[in-house]
Structures are given as C-alpha cells and as structure tokens.
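Fill in residues.
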C-alpha cells in the first residue's frame, strides 16, 4: 500500500464513523507512521492500537477494494517492540469524519526505540535513518548513542537491553560514525 492509501483509508473510516455517529481513536506506529511523517512511500500494513470494532474496519477495507482485510492490525502487540504504555506515547496527528476519528502517531523517540528492538535489517535501518534525521531536525541537535539509550530506557525501562539484538547494539554504538 502506498503512503497516499493510508490517508484514503483513514478518511473513509472517519466518513463511515460520522455516518454512524460513533467516535474512536487509532494510534499508529511502524512503517505506516514513518510513511505519515514522509519517510516512506509504501508499507505493507497499518500497525496500530485502536478503539474501533474490527468488523467495522474490515467492511471499510473491503469496500475500498483491498484483498487483505487485516491491513489495519494490532499484530505488533505480540512482538518484543510492544510495551503496555504505547498508547500514552503517541502524539495527535489528525481528525477525520467531522472529528469522529482521532488519529495519533507514536513519538519519534518511541519509533526509534521500537525500530531498534525489531531491527529487521532491510526496512528498519532506512526507517531509523529517516527517524533520527527527523528527530535532529525537530530538536536542532545531533543525536548520540547516549541519547538513544535514554529513548530506550524511557520506552522500555532499565531492562531494555534484553530486547536488543547484538546487531542493534552495534548499530547504536556506531551511531556517530553512521551519521557524522
């Protein structure tokens, strides 16, 4: 799915929610969040936590012509990247359907932490490069290994290192060499 498809899907969900006079929230992370922020042109799904009825979402996805009815899912909640306070660490992004659907996106710090825990070489490294540059632009500062460890501690607590692969640890150690 292309980045513009995310907007189409969210608009349609909001439109249908407005028709039914229901409200709800979606907190997005992963590749879809990176796409929303302008760092990707496509993603395979929309990883999120939401308050909507799953069958309601599936009907909308089907009506839009998608064959994968699970394109909006919470599968990441079963991964090492997930943490219970995720929903509290999202920023407001946009409203759809006459304010019936509120969309949030995880913070840059949380997305960086989650990408490091997942650390799938192909997609996560390019996402990390984008997210780190975006963070640096927003904060007008260079990022360091110690700052990354702060993000991880703030996101996962003191035991975050149990979630990191050796490759992710090596990536963090070399962050200054990678970007500067």
């Amino acid at each position: 799915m292309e980045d513009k498809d995310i907007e189409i899907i969210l608009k349609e969900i909001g439109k249908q929610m407005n028709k039914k006079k229901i409200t709800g929230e979606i907190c997005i992370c992963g590749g879809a969040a990176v796409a929303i922020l302008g760092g990707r042109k496509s993603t395979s799904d929309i990883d999120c936590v939401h308050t909507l009825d799953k069958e309601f979402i599936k009907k909308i996805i089907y009506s839009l012509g998608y064959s994968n009815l699970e394109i909006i899912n919470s599968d990441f909640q079963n991964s090492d990247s997930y943490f219970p306070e995720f929903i509290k660490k999202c920023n407001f992004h946009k409203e759809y359907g006459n304010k019936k659907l509120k969309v949030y996106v995880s913070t840059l710090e949380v997305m960086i932490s989650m990408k490091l825990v997942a650390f799938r070489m192909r997609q996560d490294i390019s996402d990390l490069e984008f997210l780190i540059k975006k963070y640096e632009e927003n904060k007008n500062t260079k990022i360091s290994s110690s700052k990354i460890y702060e993000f991880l501690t703030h996101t996962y607590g003191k035991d975050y290192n149990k979630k990191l692969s050796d490759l992710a640890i090596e990536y963090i150690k070399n962050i200054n060499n990678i970007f500067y």
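The chain has a mean pLDDT of 93.
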